[in-house]
């Protein structure tokens, strides 16, 4: 009976190790993919280039209305594929979300569809200290 319990714990440990390894492989792959197709910009560089770029907020409308970077358009990540036609391929695309998790996935999708000059706000909106705008209602 004791040997069976030890064997079961060994299987649980193996499964946990495999899951943890898979997670780290996914994180590493995302990092490599993001570096291949986009540039991470700090707030200062993002602010300098955003006047000549399309600034896209990938958060949901409710979050966008609560506050967003002045001049940004809201295209929630969930509808990015459907609304990609609203973006020009000949202009830089600056994307951001609360951190930069969705932005990483978004630039991979955009790059796959022919967009080349892609930038991500490094700290995300959560640490943005520049000008913002909130919805009136």
Q: Would you kindly provide a written description of the structure presented here, covering whatever features stand out?
A:
The N and C termini lie far apart (65 Å). This protein is of the alpha/beta class. 47% of the residues lie in helices and 15% in strands. The chain contains 5 helices and 7 strands. It is elongated. Helix 1 packs across helix 5 (101-112). The strands form 2 sheets. It has a 5-stranded parallel sheet. A two-stranded antiparallel sheet has the order 3-7.
Write the layout of secondary structure elements.
Elements (H helix, E strand, L loop, with lengths): L1 H36 L1 E3 L1 H7 L4 E4 L3 H6 L1 E2 L3 E2 L5 H4 L9 E4 L4 H12 L5 E4 L10 E2 L4
Parallel strand pairs: 1-6, 2-4, 2-5, 5-6
Antiparallel strand pairs: 3-7
Helix pairs in contact: 1-5
CATH class of the largest domain: Alpha Beta
Number of domains: 2
Q: Which regions contain 5 or more consecutive residues with pLDDT less than 50? A: none
What's the rounded overall pLDDT mean?
91
Please outline the major beta sheet: 5 strands, parallel
CATH architecture of the largest domain: 3-Layer(aba) Sandwich
What is the CATH homologous superfamily assignment of the largest domain? Answer: Rhodanese-like domain
How many helices in DSSP terms?
Answer: 5
Radius of gyration: 20 Å
What do we call the CATH topology of the largest domain? Oxidized Rhodanese, domain 1
Shape: elongated
Query: End-to-end distance, in Å?
Result: 65 Å
How large a portion of the residues is in β-strands, by DSSP E?
15-25%
Strand order of the largest sheet: 1-6-5-2-4
Alpha-beta classification: alpha/beta
């Amino acid at each position: 009976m004791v040997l069976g319990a030890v064997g079961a714990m060994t299987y649980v440990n193996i499964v946990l190790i495999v899951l943890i390894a898979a997670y780290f492989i996914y994180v590493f792959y995302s990092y490599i993919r993001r570096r291949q197709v986009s540039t991470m910009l700090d707030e200062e560089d993002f602010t300098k280039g955003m006047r000549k770029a399309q600034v896209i907020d990938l958060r949901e409308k409710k979050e966008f209305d609560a506050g967003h970077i002045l001049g940004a358009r809201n295209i929630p990540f969930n509808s990015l594929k459907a609304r990609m036609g609203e973006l020009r391929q000949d202009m830089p695309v600056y994307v951001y979300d609360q951190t930069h998790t969705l932005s990483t996935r978004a630039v991979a999708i955009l790059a796959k569809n022919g967009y080349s000059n892609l930038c991500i706000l490094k700290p995300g909106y959560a640490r943005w200290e520049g000008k913002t705008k909130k919805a009136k209602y």
